[in-house]
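CO-FOLDING WORKSHEET

Operator: S.A.
Ligand of interest: S-adenosylmethionine
Run index: 526
Mode: holo prediction, single chain
Checklist:
[x] sequence pasted
[x] SMILES validated
[ ] output reviewed
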Amino acid sequence: MVEDREKARQELTEQLRSAKSQAVRNKLGQFATPASLASDIVRQALSLLGRGRSIRFLEPGFGTGSFYSALLRSASPSHIETAAGYEIDAHYFEQSARLWDGTGLRLHHADFTRVEPPQTEADRYNLVVCNPPYVRHHHLDSSQKQELQAIVSRRLHFQMNGLGGLYTYFMALSQTWMSKGGVGAWLVPSEFMDVNYGRKVKELLVSRVTLHRLHRFDPNEVQFEDALVSSVVVFFTNALPSDNHQVEFSFGGTLDEPRVSTLVGLNQVYKTPKWTHLPQSAVEHDRKDSTGTLADLFAIKRGLATGCNSFFVLSAEEVQRHSLPAQFLRPILPSPRDIAGDEILADKAGEPLIAKRRYLVHCDLCAERIRAEYESFWRYLEYGIERGIHKRYLCRHREPWYSQENRPPAPFLCTYMGRPTARSESPFRFILNHSQATAANVYLMLYPKPRLATLLQGNPEVSRVIWKALSSVTPESLVGHGRTYGGGLYKLEPKELANLPADVILDVLPKGTKMRSHRQLSLFGM
Ligand SMILES: C[S@@+](CC[C@H](N)C(=O)[O-])C[C@H]1O[C@@H](n2cnc3c(N)ncnc32)[C@H](O)[C@@H]1O
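OUTPUT RECEIVED:
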């Protein structure tokens, strides 16, 4: 009977999933927990609660009720005193209400963050299990964020970080729904363990509740088919921690059989800024987690600064109009907004196959030679002098003023400044460049260091793998390494990008590649 309902639930989940596009599901963070993982989480949570206790269960962000179904499979019905769920999406709500009809579930069609929690201890829940919607903060409008912060502040007297996704508010608010000693089990993205906005969540976890365990899945064993999110399961009870409390940090494998696991004193947890560095033994296993950075693999430089783009960066028509000789022109990429995709293909000559081609004026010859041998180019330089270009700060510090910094084409580029746009959630784009075009300072250029360069020469297909890996880095991780300015403008300096952990790349390199281990990285002087 319970198994039949679970089968029907899985069918319903699939039906609801395929009825919506990924973009629409992203908006409400609709990614179902795989059934076996839901069972593992519920079993662990039940053992923390203590077998045989009367259960008051709550699943906020209910979806089709992965955890409720797991509860019915794991606990005896006589122990379930009450069970409730909250779901904002009418679609899910109606179908789930029908599916679970007659099981005693009280399913509410409501926004969990807006509902007032129970006022009395007896009405609160002692088992809250949740895979909250993973909606990034820039999908929440600013009034929504302010309101969420105000709700948390009113109910918990706690100030959340505005860059946190919806799941951080779900986690914080759930405490007010829990009875004393109640157990919370949360499947959330592991991002909060390291990035800036996560500090507030960690503060709640170490100071307001007793944190029992964080199990982080290996990012290479992704838990969801369609959301490339590395996940962590967090278990806590709603009680203040004792002074000598220890938290279990485990990593890899499954909840029941983690690859590594260690107990860490709360003091140590407190002092560790990046929780993904715990457990220590896992870090020893995967030294790349904490030590190697992109700087080991790439020389990262800002693109060149011309001093006056309107003079030095020209369209094909302008080149033709001024009859400029090809030897003083180099292909250069236009502004990122004029590049449609994130991969730039090239023709046989190495010119980028893009609509808005641009050429950089560059010449090292002395003025006398140009005047004597290249009449049209000389006229163009004179035109620049008339406009005072040669006196501009950057030009005046170059010798000759019309020469350019040396920036060979780079195979990987990052647009390092911007706002999240409708087209992309991330303010940053990684571009795979097959062309011989150089780039201006609106890009960061990633030049593979010798050993990686050799690997790429022998295995050009690996470029694509690296590019995909770079593109999969979440904006939060990047912003955690970079800066955010007012109005949602993000900026990333070369050094900040260089500080990103190298495992982003090392993890995806073909098996058997020497560079996969950090120790080898340093051995080879990368
Ligand atoms: C990550 S899914 C989890 C679904 C299910 N609990 C599971 O584990 O498979 C999150 C669910 O929360 C719902 N949701 C999103 N925002 C919500 C809100 N503010 N209040 C209640 N539910 C919400 C989504 O529609 C989605 O069904």
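REVIEW:
The radius of gyration is 28 Å.
The domain at 2-285 is CATH 3.40.50.150 (Rossmann fold).
[x] output reviewed
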